[in-house]
């Protein structure tokens, strides 16, 4: 349960992408005061892309409290958010590594796993969490190639590049956890490009699980519903933000802290030792099939 259990929507607000945590009203709950670890990831080394804020920050905090060292990918303009996440990881007694860089650039994306492995002494878990969307008011025919490029390169190309580059470091017991979305199952007309990348992520999750299973590497995805993160005020119109999450069966948006345990479960070599090729919904009750 979080501090915003009775919350219906949010104050109208807007930010420029990628959005920063401190400018949000209310500031999200990343589990800072609630997440309790129990050694499920003792000694593991994890890369979390987009680990500065939102779901990525909650995952980094949870992983650290479960005993993992964490490398964080993020955009250079998110330095203050990344440093705050790193502070929580270090407070949990674990190592935090900061790896700024724009992963729509192939060389930058491909370099991430190696940089993480160098600093952490290896790599066991890759969380492909970085993502971008931009809600459109106009019709689909007005979307530009630059806009499509940014969404597809961030959500899909970078995920493929980073996973490829991570494979030399991963072995028996390793895990890849991708961040999908309810948008893969119930696409919004304002998010045609974004929703299509999330459907593709589900598909490649199942397919990579098949290819990498014989090497003992598990591949899964989490499909969040509406979660209160900087992505929302940075990419949705203020009137959508006000009602954000109200259309779920649970009647509210989720907090990043409520998504992180799904990533811990799928990353944990003990809890999820026989779980691969699955997409786990954390949607406030919306169906993921
Ligand atoms: P967020 O803004 O906190 O996190 C997204 C992160 O992606 C950013 O912090 C940024 O570091 C990273 N990123 C974006 N473009 C990048 C680039 N070019 N190079 C490097 N890093 C880049 O928002 P969030 O909601 O926590 O998003 C995390 C993931 O969750 C995304 O994949 C998103 O699609 C997914 N998701 C979010 C929701 C939601 O309602 N918030 C729902 C379903 C899925
Ligand atoms: Mg951010």
TrEMBL record:
The keyword Oxidoreductase applies. Belongs to the short-chain dehydrogenases/reductases (SDR) family. SUPFAM superfamilies: NAD(P)-binding Rossmann-fold domains. InterPro entries: NAD(P)-bd_dom_sf (IPR036291), Sc_DH/Rdtase_CS (IPR020904), SDR_fam (IPR002347). Residues 1-16 have a biased composition (Polar residues). It comes from Isoptericola hypogeus. The keyword Oxidoreductase applies. PROSITE patterns: ADH_SHORT. Keywords: Oxidoreductase. This is SDR family oxidoreductase. Pfam families: adh_short_C2. It comes from the Bacteria. Residues 1-39 are annotated as: Disordered.
């Amino acid at each position: 349960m979080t501090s915003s259990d009775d919350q219906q929507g949010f104050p109208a607000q807007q930010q420029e992408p990628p959005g920063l945590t401190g400018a949000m009203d209310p500031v999200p709950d990343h589990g800072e005061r609630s997440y309790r670890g129990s050694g499920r990831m003792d000694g593991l080394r994890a890369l979390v892309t987009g680990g500065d804020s939102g779901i990525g920050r909650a995952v980094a905090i949870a992983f650290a409290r479960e005993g993992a060292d964490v490398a964080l990918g993020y955009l250079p303009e998110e330095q203050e958010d990344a440093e705050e996440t790193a502070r929580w990881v270090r407070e949990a007694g674990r190592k935090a590594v900061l790896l700024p860089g724009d992963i729509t650039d192939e060389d930058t994306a491909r370099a991430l796993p190696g940089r993480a492995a160098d600093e952490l002494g290896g790599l066991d878990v890759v969380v492909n969490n970085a993502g971008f969307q931009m809600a459109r008011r106009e019709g689909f025919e007005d979307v530009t190639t630059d806009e499509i490029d940014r969404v597809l390169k961030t959500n899909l190309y970078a995920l493929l590049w980073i996973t490829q580059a991570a494979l030399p470091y991963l072995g028996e017991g390793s895990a890849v956890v991708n961040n999908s979305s309810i948008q893969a199952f119930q696409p919004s007309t304002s998010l045609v490009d974004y929703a299509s990348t999330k459907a593709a992520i589900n598909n490649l999750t199942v397919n990579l699980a098949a290819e990498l299973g014989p090497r003992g590497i598990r591949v899964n995805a989490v499909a969040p519903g509406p979660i209160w993160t900087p992505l929302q005020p940075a990419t949705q119109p203020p009137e959508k933000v006000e009602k954000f999450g109200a259309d779920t069966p649970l009647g509210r948006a989720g907090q990043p802290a409520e998504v992180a345990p799904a990533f811990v479960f799928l990353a944990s070599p003990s809890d999820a030792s026989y779980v691969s090729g699955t997409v786990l919904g954390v949607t406030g009750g919306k169906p993921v099939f």
